Amino acid sequence: MKYWQRIGIAIVALALAQFAGHSATADEKPFAGIRGDISLDLPIWPSLTDLEPAASGSFDSTGFGLGASVHWPVAQFTNSDLLLGIDGTIAATDSSISGTFADLLARQLYLGGSIKWQFGDARNVSLDLGLGYHELDMAQVDSNWRGSVENEQWSESTASAFVGGTWDIGAGRSDHDSGLMLALRIHFADFGQVVDEDVFFTVLGSDAGKLDGPLYMLRIGYSSR
Length: 225
What we know:
With 225 residues, this protein is mainly beta. Helix content is 10%, strand content 55%. It has 2 helices and 10 strands. The protein has helices spanning 3-21, 46-49, and strands at residues 35-44, 64-76, 80-93, 104-119, 125-144, 147-168, 178-188, 190-193, 210-212, 215-224. The protein has an 8-stranded antiparallel β-barrel with strand order 1-2-3-4-5-6-7-10. A two-stranded antiparallel ribbon has the order 8-9. The two termini are 33 Å apart. The model is unreliable at 1-5 and 11-31 (pLDDT under 50).
């Protein structure tokens, strides 16, 4: 079992254990309950845009994807609540980099655990900290009604940490516990040098540059608690 898997399991186990073992006293505000969200994720990655592949073209400044998270309340303070949970994102960024049969596509997967510290009377603004597994590849992908063909040019995985904030706009309204959510995460991950793994049909070349953070992930979606 890899270290990032151990971290994720430990975070989830800790959240469940503390949530199950907590009981509010008469002076405490009851927990709002489990918080979940689903979102359209827009990755903005300056380091990806700055790569210089052997083929002409570059990656787009903004990508697209889907994200989701679930958090459990574990502690309560006078003006804030602490939640632990899990996060996941899949995203892709198009490019104008010409391959042998299709333009290059950068695809990423993030899975990890995080801490959410909610503030205010409505508990609808939070500071977010997370750590997880981050995987990225660059491939030519050609899809049509007959199926799809792809050729992977480069792939890498690493640990990734993020810091960010969330605003549960809908949940902040009176008598509402769900609605529109806005969030921003700043990921810090070092994928190293980008080198084409296909020696016969080179697109990226022998050194397209270094790919690291920060990666800005803008999230627009729906949250409920």
